[in-house]
Each structure stands twice: as structure tokens, then as C-alpha cells.
Amino acid sequence: MIDLHSHVLPGVDDGAEDLDDALEICAAAVADGIVVLAATPHVRSDYPTTPEQMESALAELRAAVGDTLRLVPGGELDLAELDRPPEELRRFGLAGNPEMLLVETPYTGWPLDLADKLFRLKLAGFGAVLAHPERNRDVQANPELLEPVVHGGTLVQLTAASLDGRFGGRARQCSFALLERGLAHLVASDAHSAAVREVGMSSAVEAIGDDDLAQWLTIDVPRSILERTAAPPRPVGGRSRRRWLFGR
Fold first, then answer.
1. Rounded to 5°, angle at Cα 166 from 106 and 20
2. Which CATH architecture has domain 2-246?
């Protein structure tokens, strides 16, 4: 699997505190079946990560991990950070793709200008992956909020812990509602540690219960971002919404 959202870089944000923590997350990722892991530290007011900090921490971690896991760069950007100069945004490109950015969804409230912000980002030459909207209360109450965002070309990333229930029933139900509506495109761990908010990608695959769809979400679409190619079409078929929401 390819995991394009984690907070594995040591001492940069609220993820790994030090190199030992980072190595534990990497080991847990490998054990879970992940072969590529994107290090995507927060880029926001409380964690004002610079491209230099991200690149330096990534180089340190790569040297320590060796060839057991492929680590790629990125950043999880707050909406307020999207006005940075384009050359700086490109250095935070998701999986090293300078034309794709990981954008953080607020946990509370729904920005009325979100679709406009992402459209302007597209006009500037950037695609976007919207991180974990299923954990936003407004989206949980009204999943259709994502329709104009997705129709504008933005990809939506669900968190593994939402799909398998670790983040509670609301996030799980919203995740499967988004899948049912075709409003989700990839799954990532958003791992912050090896034990708390752990990786758990394989348990999310099991929860999805559809091998073709799970491969599309955890391999095909993430690989298209990594390799800068067009994503394959979403597989047709899959489990019914009733089975997703009530059966496991």
C-alpha cells in the first residue's frame, strides 16, 4: 500500500517526538504492508513548518530508515497557508509531486469559500487532496458539502481510523457515505505515532470489504500522485451502502 499522509518526521509537529518515535512509526508502517510513506507535517500557525525544516528532517529519517521503506516529502497545509509563493508550495508537493498539495480540512465549521480557494489553487497550477473531511462535523451532517469541491477536481482522502471505527461511529458512517456517493478517492493513515493514532491501513482495507475498491483507494490513486500520471477509473460495483454502514 501507499500511504500519503503521516506525521512521521521527528520533532517537527504533533507527530513523532524524536527519531526513535519516527522509526517506530516506520516499522509499524512496514508491518502493516506499506511500501511508500509520505511525511506530511502540519504547515499552519501552531506548527509553522518551513520547507527547509521538512526537507532536513526527511533527510535525517531517510538515512536512519535505509531501504526498508520509501519515504517521500509533502506537507499538510492549512487553508490560510495556500497564499504562500508558488515556488514554496511546490516544495511541499505531496509525494514529491510539485503540482499536488495536501490541504487540511478544519475539524469544526465549514469554510463557505473552500471551493473557491481550491479553484484558485487549481488556476495557479496545483491540484489538491483534501485531508480527512469525514472528521468535520458539518460534513458528517451533510456529506453533500463535498460535491462542489470534488466536481471542481479536488481529491478527497479518508483516514484509515475513520473507516475501521477507531475515530468513532460518526466518522465511520460519514466515510462510507462519501464512498457510496463517489466523493472519496484515497485512504491514508494520518499516523502520529506507532501506538496512538497508529497506522492501521490494513484494518481499513478489511473494513471496506471490496478488494478492487480498496486497491484503488490505497494503491492506484496514491500511485498516480506519486508517479504524476492519470488515476485509473474508479472500480464499478462494490458493497451496498446498507452493508457498509451496518455489516462487517
1. 85
2. Alpha-Beta Barrel (3.20)
Instruction: Between 220 and 115, name the one with better pLDDT.
Output: 220
Q: How far is residue 40's CA from residue 144's CA, in Å, rounded to a whole number? A: 27
Q: Where are the domains of the chain?
A: 2-246
pLDDT in tens, 165-189: 999 999 999 999 999 999 999 999 9
Buried b (16+ CB within 10 A) or exposed e, 158-172: bbbbbbbbbbeeebb
- CA 204/CA 209 separation, integer angstroms: 9
Verdict on whether the full-model pTM lies above 0.85: yes
Calpha distance 29→168 (Å, rounded): 22
